[in-house]
Amino acid sequence: MGSTFNILLVDDEVDVQGLKRVFLKSKIGNPITVARDGIEALEFMRGENGRERRPKPHPILLDLYLPRMNGIEFPGALRTDKDLRAAVAFMITTSKADEDRMRAYGHNVAGYIVKRDPANTFMEAVALLGHYLKVVEFPA
User: Fold this and answer.
1) pTM, full prediction
2) SS3 track for 73-121
3) CATH number of the domain encompassing residue 84
4) Which domain holds residue 110?
């Protein structure tokens, strides 16, 4: 994964720490921005409320269960923003519910990953993201 990719993690502190450990173990040194919920993530992506705007592209790993703006509302907000609608978001969640999965894909998430065993799921998700970013061409 090239250093030009700025990864946005939108999740609680426990999962963020787990994901950061996996990125380190996988030797992925991309810049990582952490947001606690969808509102904070949008502020980073837009450079609002005193937050430094993160450069594009910014692939996103987000949880479904977030305060203020959850993991279904956030991709919905992305898709209605002409400047952010092309952002690539992967949902990483404990929810196995068909309704949640369908709603996430309805907002064009790139993937819906269920945390069955967090340590292994995080390793698999980071490997997937690493491979994805190596082979996919992003718009400027």
Assistant:
1) 0.85
2) HHHHHHHCCCCCCCCCEEEEECCCCHHHHHHHHHCCCCEEEECCCHHHH
3) 3.40.50.2300
4) 7-116
* pLDDT for residue 96: 93
Give me the number of domains the chain comprises.
1
Residues constituting the chain: 140
Tell me what the mean pLDDT of segment 95-102 comes to: 94
Residue 9 is inside which H or E element, if any?
A: strand 7-10
Does residue 69 form part of some domain?
Answer: yes
What pLDDT, in 10s, does the model give residues 29-81?
778 899 999 999 999 999 999 898 887 777 899 999 999 999 999 999 999 99
- As a whole number of angstroms, the distance between CA 37 and CA 68 comes to 7
Cα separation, 59 vs 51, in Å, equals 18
DSSP state for residue 72 in the 8-state scheme: T
- Residue 69 tokens read as 């703006």
Say if 128 falls within a structural domain.
no
Q: What pLDDT was estimated at residue 64?
A: 92
Question: Could you tell me if residue 130 is inside a domain?
Answer: no
